[in-house]
Amino acid sequence: MNRLVPRLQAGAALIAALLLAVLAGATPPAAAAAQTLTWTAGDDITAYRSVPTTAVAGQTTIVFENSAATGNTTGMPHTLTFDTSGDGGYNSDVNLNILASPFDVNNGRHTATVTLTPGKYRYLCTIPGHSTMVGELTVTSGDPDPDTTAPTVTATVAGSRNAQGDYLGSATVTVAANDAGSGVRGVEYQINDTSWQPYAAPVPITTIGDHSVQFRATDNAGNTSQPGSVAFRVVAGQPQDTTPPVVSGQVSGTRDSTGNYVGTATTTLTATDTGGSGVKTIEYQLDGGAWTAYSTPVVVSSLGAHMLHYRATDNAGNTAAEQMASFTIVAPPVVDTTPPQVTATITGDRDAGGNYLGTATATVTATDTGGSGVKTVEYRLDDGAWTGYSTPVVINTVGAHVLRHRATDNAGNTAAEKQVAFTVVERGSDACPDSDTRDTVVIDGFDTRIRNIDTGNGCTINDLIAERAVYPTHAAFVRHVETVTTGLVTAGKLTQRQAGTIVRAAAASDKGEPA
């Protein structure tokens, strides 16, 4: 108690002044009161130690005690104030405001005489920080029968226990009493049948061995309950755990190229305790919010930068130093659900009926507006297999043809299949009015020394090769020459060796190369 003297001396003047002011305005006690109602307080700033719950209308003695006898070991002041605002339907006709401290002029015990009327009164402690000390008193019109029923009183034992149920190191006995009539005036207890003493706060017992704690309560009408008892054993406790747990956090989710999480980020917290008492709680705090008990991974989906603090506490009360994880969440990219646009064009010399003379060249193009880009372009000629498209397709087989085509983007969207129909016919005798009649096959100035014969319909090999035509790439030109010479070999116009010489000359040329 000596450690409290400096603080109590510093506040003594203020407490005395407040007490005198309150007492000066209190109603002087009457010669006798119909009933006595007692409130007690202790070290707790969240609740009174004991309170009456019911009373009868009429003159009443109010007793408010906040002393060492009622469990105040720190000199903490409290008030007992009746609410006179009239809010909530409470009675407002009793003006009571008692400030009590163990070191005031009354040693913490104060009385006042008031007149209660039927209804409900709201009482509370008005000292800042003590706002949770609040309750209700119900007043009835009176009962002709006196209170002859003793209070009910119970006790509970708490503490860490071993497998046999014994308490490790200490056991704490808490006594609670209730009286539905005149109200509880006092509670008493004794340890191992020693001597009765007032009960003010939970009683810790640390002596190793078997124990029995008896308890009883008396109401304001003087009725005392039969003693109750609890029996238990205290054994030596385990070595004290002073090591805090180790806590860690792992953030997971889909990340972009800069490390930001796309759409959501999930943080999983884990904790281990090597001190022996075991992990009791894991808590987290997101972006400066309230600390929250952790039970499942924390999923964050709001866009922007975030800071997650976390900590863990073991069963011995050791709390780990706060850890933190920082991360940023960005919006996911817009999903591409639009297939590419694909088209095919057929080019070549055509007759009056629109048929292609000798050769038709199919060019397929695709564009993607969905954002992911074109991945593949394919075509299928007549009943052939689907083939990846890279360069224009040259068709010199006489007859009707159908070129099917499609494209797929990088998001997996495939355009609906399209098709274009066309017909290739043999060139007529006047198909090459400006026929190249040089004696040998010449490609880009290179003389192959192979005779430039008439292949039929008035067209020579040079006419079919058409080196002066426009080709999108050099490969397209070489493929065209391969197609022409293959057809001439099949028709018996060229030998395989001659065809190879012409193709090599085409490959060595610059035809189709960018200007």
From TrEMBL:
<dbReference type="Pfam" id="PF00127">
    <property type="entry name" value="Copper-bind"/>
</dbReference>
<dbReference type="InterPro" id="IPR013783">
    <property type="entry name" value="Ig-like_fold"/>
</dbReference>
<keyword id="KW-0813">Transport</keyword>
<keyword id="KW-0249">Electron transport</keyword>
<feature type="region of interest" description="Disordered">
    <location>
        <begin position="239"/>
        <end position="259"/>
    </location>
</feature>
<dbReference type="InterPro" id="IPR000923">
    <property type="entry name" value="BlueCu_1"/>
</dbReference>
<keyword id="KW-0732">Signal</keyword>
<dbReference type="InterPro" id="IPR058094">
    <property type="entry name" value="Ig-like_OmpL47-like"/>
</dbReference>
<protein>
    <submittedName>
        <fullName>OmpL47-type beta-barrel domain-containing protein</fullName>
    </submittedName>
</protein>
<dbReference type="InterPro" id="IPR014756">
    <property type="entry name" value="Ig_E-set"/>
</dbReference>
<dbReference type="InterPro" id="IPR028871">
    <property type="entry name" value="BlueCu_1_BS"/>
</dbReference>
<feature type="domain" description="Blue (type 1) copper">
    <location>
        <begin position="65"/>
        <end position="139"/>
    </location>
</feature>
<keyword id="KW-0479">Metal-binding</keyword>
<keyword id="KW-0186">Copper</keyword>
<dbReference type="InterPro" id="IPR008972">
    <property type="entry name" value="Cupredoxin"/>
</dbReference>
<feature type="signal peptide">
    <location>
        <begin position="1"/>
        <end position="32"/>
    </location>
</feature>
<feature type="compositionally biased region" description="Polar residues">
    <location>
        <begin position="239"/>
        <end position="257"/>
    </location>
</feature>
